[in-house]
Fold this sequence. Notes:
The structure is a homodimer. With about 325 residues, chain A is α/β, with parallel strands linked by helices.
Amino acid sequence: MARVKNQIAAGVDLGGTTFSVGLLTREGEVVAHQQYDTPRSDGEPLSLEAIVAAVSGTMESATVKPHELAAVGVGIPGPVDPEAGTIKQCPNMHELDGVNVVELVGEGVGAPAFIGNDAYCATLAELRYGAGRDVERLVMFTLGTGVGGGIALGDSVQRGPRQIMGEVGHIIVDPDGPPCGCGSYGCLEAIVGRDGIVGRVALLMREGRASSLAEMSGEGHGLLTPKMVSEAAEAGDAVACEVIEETGYYVGIALCDCIVLCDPDLIVIGGGIAAAGDLLFEPIRSTVRRRSMISGFDTTKIVAAELGSEAGMYGAAALAWEGTGG
Amino acid sequence: MARVKNQIAAGVDLGGTTFSVGLLTREGEVVAHQQYDTPRSDGEPLSLEAIVAAVSGTMESATVKPHELAAVGVGIPGPVDPEAGTIKQCPNMHELDGVNVVELVGEGVGAPAFIGNDAYCATLAELRYGAGRDVERLVMFTLGTGVGGGIALGDSVQRGPRQIMGEVGHIIVDPDGPPCGCGSYGCLEAIVGRDGIVGRVALLMREGRASSLAEMSGEGHGLLTPKMVSEAAEAGDAVACEVIEETGYYVGIALCDCIVLCDPDLIVIGGGIAAAGDLLFEPIRSTVRRRSMISGFDTTKIVAAELGSEAGMYGAAALAWEGTGG
Lengths: 326, 326
């Protein structure tokens, strides 16, 4: 079937090792999806020309013509200025700091370009095409090395004038808790981010508890990831189960704060450790149930993210559609 | 000067002991303001006729003609259904449970009527006529017997579909903290509401600390109020100062959560204990400063409420203006 003008949006999800390009219809149908190595392994700085070339290459492979491309969205793993179209800071890819993506990618691709940070894109992706497609109010948690997230109210993801609305990883869940990279103490990220989870596994093992994670943890437990902990928990490892349950408890505390401050219809939990399923979700839900007695608090649904590692690509394409008024 | 049609809104702030009626222009000029005893002292139930009569009486006293009244707003000390126009539950005045205020007061007064809960009204009042009149995003905390509040984003106070958005008193500031009336533990209200503050004063006195509050605290410290504690602190009482400082710390923790979830331009603190001034605000601000290292977090202004005990009346009138599209 021949395509009409402006029928496709491109979404670019930029990462330090790889980046992916997706071509999506407004309804979220994936016409093409390709992954590329981020061209930095030889010490060369990443240039936006590489992104432009990848978008063009993906379009050619799917026989998408230039006039069919409505817009391109680029998701950045760091803070951006969406109005100016610039990257404020790109950790691990500092050659992009201050670069005007909207101008350079837009000119290169020959279509309007838009940028958003990766947490914004993941939230928008779940809102438009994932677990939140039937709601207008959601809070998203992405539990990974750090804890990212976002808030959608009135069917749009909101970041606020300082671009900090939805930084759910910095909700204080234990005021006497461990220091966080942000300078505060006891933030959710400090407790259930990668370092917090691995640290608690290590502590239990130091206390003499046996765990299948011991043999894979490496020097100083440097090889452990939250995903490995969630897999060990699924396999019945008692130490891993205990850490996942405690993780669920602290996530639940943060959810309670989101409920009274945002009144969401839905809370979406993604990231590597969400693979633990009920082992994680049961303590989250029971904490919210026990902690939220005010009428109506417990009507907020808590579900797993649906788009997984493709959320960034979906979200970048959704960003492009939003930018064109779609 | 003769007034034109629809130039005045009436605001009714309903309380268990007294209620007040204000007549305000759209710009917030108070044309008249009267306080009435809530007619329940003789055991009779409160009727809306008494409210209608008070609005009419206040209008007559200020020679405001019926055609000059654009609308009336009624602030209720309990949860409401603003769309249906009904009171869900009115603690201490259960005879009003389920009553349709919009219909009965509207017919009685002969102008459109609107209802909101008191926390909504206080927030709207500060947004329109008080500390927040120059901003579009604010979070309000009212520190009283309980801890109420509200959130304004995009220049309107938002309560969410379940009417719980902005229940800042139930932010969890210490997950192992004391039980809260809501059924949870360690909510801000459980620690810095009346019972929490008085309980901490009592604890310090039981530990043998001398305090000017001892002589006025009554049987089981039943006579102490947060306002008395803030006045004693201002007079230099060490126990009171310590409790106010600790209160500021916990309020500061809650503010940090509001900053990452709402990105407000301004946080407004009202209620009896806010009279303690810098004794309260300094620990609040230093907690937020120490806890909010992410770029931009510390640009949120934290100020005292401006409208004091009249916030409810101002807010009810603002509600009326909003209802008429003002």
